[in-house]
């Protein structure tokens, strides 16, 4: 952020201001300096985002009732502060950058990052620090390689006799029970004459022989992938809603009580964030305690139920948007307009407040689904893979962004060449944006059906719902039968 601030504050680090229609582009050195700032920003964000949630969860004791409740509330309040910070940056910081000075607008977040670093390091002595234990990616690859090498072997009927099991005393992961889900991976624990076992009971080579504990940890990761796919499709609808609400606002009446001040079109996403920041405390402090009394669950409802509710509300969100858009378009075509939006078309006299409805529904949906997704990954991954879970979550958002772009491109191409009007024309008054919203709604309906199917199949890590043959701690660590 300091580099980006310097590009705006120091005249030699950015191109001169445009004079009339004449604009001079940046020099190679100016562009290189700017890209260097972006590079540092990406490196810093990639280190913070996957790890900050894992580090925060480490501060709670998951073995106590208060610690478990604290973890559940932590996810809610983390996303609350994250959304609040985004809301401030999209309003106050953007206003300073656009209306006052770019250098000051970039200097403010730079100062806050510097202050956060000081606060973070001041509290170093009181933090709970969990030491790293092996590479999570290496563990996954080892199990897959050992399974492939032993793919022709037959899994024994009695896992207590023939499967290798050893849990290191230094492991920070909770002991997991043997399960029949993804049973083919259990072949990696079959002992053969070629396998070596160390005097302390550990495997001589994890690339050929893996313990049941290691296999179950890998299963925890693989089992989340079908849920992850459903969450990616859900995020596509959220991104489409954010983007196209801005386009709708550009061709709507954004005035406050018919005076001269207009709400910036991009600021309509703030209503989504505002709804989310209001909803999270209500859900955490009022709704969850009531649900606990009914369901006897510390989260009120299960994580997958929370995600499912969010996806269901997402379907309603697209329906609301599909109903509002024809009203905006009809008003633009049948009643006096408020002028012309450059590059778009005439501005409808329909109040932009109608768009707030879909943004509020979107915020509530996000409050259920996205927070549930975050909690799901962090609770279901093994303890030594918490930061990997954060990366998993961020990659899902990135993939949904690409998928939304692909979906928009496909719809534009298919509808533009057909007999009907272009659904996503630049001028929304000549487009059929409501058709696109209906399409997204039906995609979400199919996604919800798919989610319910994989959620029914999914078994939580370490819960009573797990398909258990024998608890791993009760399985012998010495084996007499060798295949």
Quick synopsis:
This protein has helices spanning about 1-10, 30-60, 65-100, 100-120, 135-150, 160, 210-250, 270-295, 305-335, 355-380, 385-415, 435-455; strands spanning about 340, 345. The chain has about 475 residues and is an all-alpha fold.
Descriptive notes:
With 483 residues, the chain is mostly helical. The chain has helices spanning 2-9, 28-58, 65-100, 102-122, 136-149, 159-162, 212-250, 269-295, 303-334, 353-380, 386-417, 433-457, and strands spanning 340-341, 345-346. Strands 1-2 form a two-stranded antiparallel ribbon. Helix 2 (28-58) crosses helix 11 (386-417) and helix 9 (303-334) runs antiparallel to helix 12. The model is unreliable at 464-473 and 476-481 (pLDDT under 50).
Topology:
Blueprint: H1 2-9, H2 28-58, H3 65-100, H4 102-122, H5 136-149, H6 159-162, H7 212-250, H8 269-295, H9 303-334, E1 340-341, E2 345-346, H10 353-380, H11 386-417, H12 433-457
Antiparallel strand pairs: 1-2
Helix pairs in contact: 1-2, 1-4, 2-11, 3-4, 3-8, 3-10, 7-9, 7-10, 7-11, 7-12, 8-10, 9-10, 9-12, 10-11
What's the rounded overall pLDDT mean? 83
Q: Determine Rg (CA atoms, Å).
A: 27 Å
Contiguous runs where pLDDT drops below 50 for at least 5 residues:
464-473, 476-481
Q: What is the number of strand segments?
A: 2
Percent in strands? under 5%
* H-E string: HHHHHHHHHEEHHH
Strand line-up of the largest beta sheet = 1-2
Structural class determined from secondary elements: mainly alpha
Oligomer type: single chain
Shape: globular
């Amino acid at each position: 952020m300091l580099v980006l601030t310097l590009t705006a504050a120091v005249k030699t680090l950015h191109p001169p201001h445009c004079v009339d229609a004449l604009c001079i582009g940046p020099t190679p050195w100016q562009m290189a300096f700017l890209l260097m700032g972006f590079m540092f920003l990406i490196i810093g964000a990639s280190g913070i985002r996957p790890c900050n949630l894992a580090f925060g969860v480490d501060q709670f004791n998951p073995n106590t009732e208060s610690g478990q409740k604290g973890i559940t509330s932590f996810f809610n309040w983390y996303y609350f502060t994250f959304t609040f910070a985004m809301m401030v940056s999209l309003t106050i910081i953007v206003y300073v950058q656009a209306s006052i000075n770019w250098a000051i607008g970039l200097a403010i977040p730079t100062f806050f990052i510097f202050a956060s670093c000081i606060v973070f390091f001041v509290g170093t002595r009181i933090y709970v620090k969990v030491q790293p234990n092996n590479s999570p990616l290496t563990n996954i690859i080892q199990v897959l390689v050992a399974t492939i090498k032993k793919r022709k072997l037959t899994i024994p009927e009695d896992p207590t006799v023939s499967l290798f099991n050893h849990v290191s005393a230094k492991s920070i992961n909770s002991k997991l029970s043997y399960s029949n889900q993804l049973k083919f991976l259990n072949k990696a624990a079959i002992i053969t004459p070629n396998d070596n076992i160390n005097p302390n009971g550990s495997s001589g080579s994890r690339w050929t022989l893996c313990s049941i504990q290691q296999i179950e940890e890998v299963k925890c990761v693989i089992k989340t992938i079908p849920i992850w796919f459903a969450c990616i499709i859900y995020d596509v609808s959220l991104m489409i809603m954010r983007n196209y609400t801005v386009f709708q606002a550009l061709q709507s009446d954004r005035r406050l009580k018919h005076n001269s001040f207009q709400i910036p079109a991009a600021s309509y996403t703030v209503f989504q964030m505002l709804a989310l920041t209001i909803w999270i405390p209500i859900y955490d402090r009022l709704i969850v305690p009531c649900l606990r009394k009914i369901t006897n669950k510390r989260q009120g409802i299960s994580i997958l139920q929370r995600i499912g509710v969010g996806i269901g509300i997402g379907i309603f969100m697209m329906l609301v948007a599909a109903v509002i858009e024809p009203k905006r378009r009809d008003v633009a075509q049948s009643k006096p307009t408020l002028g012309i939006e450059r590059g778009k078309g005439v501005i409808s006299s329909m109040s932009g407040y109608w768009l707030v409805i879909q943004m509020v529904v979107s915020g509530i949906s996000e409050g259920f689904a996205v927070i549930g997704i975050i909690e799901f990954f962090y609770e279901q991954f093994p303890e030594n893979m918490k930061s990997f879970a954060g990366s998993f979550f961020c990659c899902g958002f990135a993939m949904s962004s690409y998928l939304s772009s692909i979906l928009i491109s496909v719809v534009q191409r298919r509808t533009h060449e057909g007999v009907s009007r272009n659904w996503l024309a630049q001028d929304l008054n000549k487009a059929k944006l409501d058709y696109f919203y209906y399409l997204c709604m039906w995609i979400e309906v199919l996604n919800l059906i798919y989610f319910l199917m994989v959620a029914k199949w999914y078994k939580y890590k370490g819960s009573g719902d797990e398909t258990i043959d024998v608890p791993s701690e009760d399985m012998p660590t010495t084996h007499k039968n060798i295949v």
